[in-house]
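Thread: quick sanity check before group meeting

JM: Hey all, I'm pulling together slides for Thursday and realized we never actually wrote out the predicted structure for the chain we discussed last week. Dropping the sequence here so it's in one place. If anyone has concerns about the input, flag it before I start.
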Amino acid sequence: MHNAAFAALGLNWRYLAFEVRPDDLRAAIAGAKAMQFSGLNLTVPHKLLAMQIVDELDESAKTWGAVNTIRFEGRDDNGAWLPLHQFGVPSRQLRDGQTQPAKPPEGGTPNEIRAVGFNTDSDGVARSLREDLALKLEGAKVLLLGTGGAGQVAALRLALENVSELFLVDFVSAKAEAVAQEIRKRHPRVKVKVGFPPGPVDLLLNATPLGLKPGDPSPLDEKQFPLRQARAVYDMIYNPAETLLLKAAKAAGCRTANGLGMLLHQGAKAFEIWTGQPAPLDVMRRALEAEVYQSTVHSRQSAVRSRQSTVRSRQSAVRSRQSAVRSPQS
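JM (edit): ok, ran it. Output follows.
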């Protein structure tokens, strides 16, 4: 979606994906800084770790306790910090092929570079819940699965939105308790508990990575909480478009949505942080939907081909056994 947005605004920028191990995150950020990238996005499991690596934290990262967006900034000759893309750029190409003069800072090159961490997940999840599930967050009862980077941000944002009750479930209960304690400190009016709710909730939100990989189990233990007790289910995972959890939720009669809307809105905010320009939201949405849903179609087709291959293999095995049976008789 970012490359589509860059093209729509006539920017000669590229958005690339890199797989980085947690142990290499510090080196990866340092490398991007040295190569003068404009910025980075971070995903699971890097969002909490990056808090200790970046040079500065924006208020959004301090508030939500996680970094999912980095902007590289340079110090000019006057001591001001500016986005790196403003240094040494003589012009930018517009959509009609003309160029518009830019005004690079005095000196043309930065004297020093720093990495500034932001968080755009918070706005993304709140907006997506309202748009995709038509959900009123104030006064809602919510069960949140997973309190890692994105889960922690979601929990804190839900508390800010004045949900009435918030139930936190995590494989590591101490992690959930730490988030609960932070919510009690910041938002004492919100009832927050670690564990499953005793009755129905307005929203079940999955912030765990379970469902990303084929064969992953559901993140929900239905012996602890039956899906039919959730009015709406939101899965932050967007690819596959329909996880095992969402399939089961639909079957249980719940309203459902995946994390595509959250990805769109957090990505649009990151785009604006990097470029300083309004994000072309419709362009980004169309590109994102085409990519994700086309990927889902290919995945299903591959699964069908795999099943067909298995059937053919079994048929061949049956014919082989039949031939073996007839051979002694001949």
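AS: nice. The CA atoms of residues 247 and 256 lie 9 Å apart. The longest strand covers residues 69-75.
JM: adding both to the slides.
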